[in-house]
Write a structure and sequence with these properties.
Oligomer: single chain
Shape: elongated
Low-confidence stretches: 1-5
Strand content: under 5%
Length: 112
């Protein structure tokens, strides 16, 4: 019975990790910015990898405890790296969109 509770806690942790992986695209949408395709693809790939890792950890092979592929303390470092890349791409796309605007004054006489 204790094994199932541990698995439930692990499932909750996996769900929270997947939610954190979508932090930048969701945050950008809430703030009114359009997240780029790259941001969404990075979150999707990281989510699929996290779920696959969770499934691999929870496989019971002859009752032996398998060592983890990734230590649990590595996730915050992975998350920080993903956030940095996503925010950099988001800022880069916003800067390139604002450079397309024509900021020159039209119809005004600047000599007066």
């Amino acid at each position: 019975m204790a094994k199932k509770e541990k698995s439930g806690d692990a499932g909750l942790q996996c769900g929270l990790r997947v939610l954190f992986l979508w932090g930048v695209p969701i945050g950008a949408s809430v703030l009114g910015f359009a997240p780029g395709v790259f941001d969404i693809i990075v979150s999707l790939i990281a989510s699929v990898a996290e779920i696959a890792l969770f499934m691999m950890r929870n496989q019971n092979k002859s009752g032996k405890r398998r060592t983890s592929i990734r230590p649990s303390g590595f996730f915050p470092l992975q998350l920080a790296g993903i956030y940095m890349v996503q925010l950099w791409v988001l800022m880069f796309s916003m800067a390139s969109d604002s450079s397309d605007l024509d900021l020159s004054p039209t119809g005004r006489d600047l000599t007066a």
